[in-house]
Design brief:
The complex is a heterodimer of chains A (150) and B (101). Chain A is mainly α and 150 residues long. Helix content of chain A is 69%, strand content 0%. Chain A folds into two domains: 67 residues, Four Helix Bundle (Hemerythrin (Met), subunit A) (Up-down Bundle), CATH 1.20.120; 46 residues. By secondary structure, chain B is mainly α. Chain B has a domain of 66 residues: Helix Hairpins. The longest helix of chain B is centred in the last third of the chain and has 31 residues. The chains are: A mainly alpha (150), B mainly alpha (101). At the A-B interface, helix 1, helix 2, helix 3, helix 4 and helix 5 of A face helix 1, helix 2 and helix 3 of B.
Chain lengths: 150, 101
Amino acid sequence: MVVSHKNPVSSAVSLVLTLFSTAVLFVLLHAHFIAAIQILIYAGAIMVLFLFTVMFLNIRDSELRFDSMNIPKRMTFLFLFIAVVGFLASKLFSSSPVVFPKLEDPGNFGTVAEVGRSLFSDYLLAFELTSVLVVIAMVGVLVIAKGRES
Amino acid sequence: MEIAVSHYVVLACVLFAIGVYGVITRKNILIVLMCLELMLNSCNLLFVVFSRLYEGATGHVFVLMSVTVAAAEVAVGLAFVVSIYRQKESLDIDLLKLLRG
């Protein structure tokens, strides 16, 4: 649905739906903290950013015409992807299914404490680098979006 | 029937394929960015699945990093969209041929 809508707003709403479904899958996989993060950051912040940009640009319907349906081209890609995914699925389902093992400590896996302990001990450097990256991105966005003074 | 690992892997592949399909076929730059998000999200799903399979928090940490990077990337991408729209008055990516590609 994200790819098939012509209007970016409908696309964004479909994307929110997809992200929520993925968050539900994260909960099923005992990744409660990641599910919360997914909803907060993806479905909250990023989608608000998208919708805000759509609103900010104030696009008229006539300007969306260029994205015309090129049916043969799209059909070719669609068949290609169905073939690839079908091949993959047949490969994966033909072997005996790998079932998730029982958790040793189901109350602790995927909690904020567990993820935080790992994040601030083993991956401290990566965490700090990510914060630097976010600062750089923020400054870059300000520079790009401000444009030239003229 | 119990949900096995392969179901999640196939779902992630399908999501990724839909993302690639959108990036290749759509011309609206906003929708291309959204499809990029879809692809990143399918990778996150795989990280979480294998983190559950091997019972470690490493996958969760990676997902946190990737969500942060995705947020930064979207912010930069949308800034580009705004500045391109100011110049070209259009969201068509076919108009972006400054590099004569």
